[in-house]
Amino acid sequence: MNVPWTELVREGELKTTDELDAIFFGRGVSYDKPIIVSCGSGVTAAVVLLALATLDVTNVKLYDGAWSEWGARGRFTG
Any catalytic annotation for residue 35? Predict the structure, then answer.
């Protein structure tokens, strides 16, 4: 599922915990399953990680290599 970091902030700050929870719930994120956050370079995914940490979700990992590392492997999927 996709939760863009831009949906989690307002005027440079994280939205309220109630708003964050509603956003993640609305996107089908299950807090009781492992969560991996990623983006193009690993930087903006840190905002998603912070939002989840604010909600006390602890089973989150940041794939800091992100799409740039994955794409550089030269392997195809599908």
Answer: no
* Contact present, 1 and 39 (Cβ < 8 Å): no
Domains in the chain, CATH or no CATH each: 5-70 (3.40.250.10)
The CA distances from residue 38 to 15, 16, 55, 69, 70, in Å, are 20, 22, 18, 11, 11
Q: What is the pLDDT along the chain (78 residues), one digit of tens a residue?
A: 789 999 999 999 999 999 999 999 999 999 999 999 988 776 789 999 999 999 999 999 988 765 656 666 666 655
Q: Which of 39, 47, 51, 66 is catalytic?
A: 39
Cα angle value 43/49/51 (rounded, 5°): 120
User: Structure pTM?
Assistant: 0.81
